[in-house]
Amino acid sequence: IVAREMEGALWVAHVPKTIDNDLPLPGGMPTFGFQTAREVATNLVKNLMEDSKTTGRWYFVIMMGRSAGHLALGVGESAGATLTVIPEEFQEAKIRVEDVCDRIEASMIKRKAMGRNDGIAIIAEGVALRFGDVAEIERLLGKSVPRDPHGHVRLAEVPLGEILKNEITQRFEARGSKITIVTKDIGYELRCAAPVAFDMEYTRELGYGAVRYLLGEEYPVEMKKKGALISILDGKLNPIPFDQIMDPQTGRTKVRTVDINSYRYQVARSFMIRLEKKDLDDQEMLQKLSRAANLTPEELKSRFAKLVEA
Fold this sequence. Notes:
By secondary structure, this protein is of the alpha/beta class. It has 14 helices and 9 strands. It folds into 2 domains: 2-32 and 197-245, no CATH class; 34-193 and 259-309, Phosphofructokinase domain (Rossmann fold, 3-Layer(aba) Sandwich), CATH 3.40.50. The model has no long low-confidence stretch (mean pLDDT 91).
């Protein structure tokens, strides 16, 4: 905006800072701050995993990440969380609280069938932005939810962890089962952490590159007048003109979301405990799941058939 409004009188070089890792950098390069946030959050989650195991309880960890699930997924895979739920895995533009609860509940049942009553579910906070049924949210909260001028629910007013905890606890209790769930929000403490070595080196390179781009003679003046995002590609300085990373529909920077068809996501997903179609097709496993859920095999299959086929 500054570069555009100044009409080239002020040259702007922007460095990609956000722990959400959602800026469209080439070559899969992270935004600076992301690796530090992932490191700190991973250690926090590992501590919670130890507490979860020794106390026999579940933790629902709501991870910062408004538009994309990079941080939640990175922490979940690094720490070895039981499962990680991110907004990108839902095919529908708008989802219900029920859709999220089904995924988590199914994993909890499978975990119990495997002999464990504890676990860690990491949920990206951006999942709440996909909720389309405001009436459902208000029913679960027992109160009305404030909205912005565009009619969207204010994310800060939606205690995602408590909503999921209360709904899933009620589901288990309705079947005569007892479960202990503790919620934990992780976010602000990550933004003020001392940087890890990667980010210290990375920011030096980006800062040096920004000055070199603005004051050097390698790039044409007309390009500098339009402003650029400083990036590094294959070890070389790679300024990207702002107009190449802007979304023409929103007028804002394009958002880099998690590619659920990528190798990275496939690996992360393979280490999660999730209910799969093969679990319902295996009669021995189906019996274990049924006992863990206090449901008949037919009731279990009817309840989660849609989930495993999605």
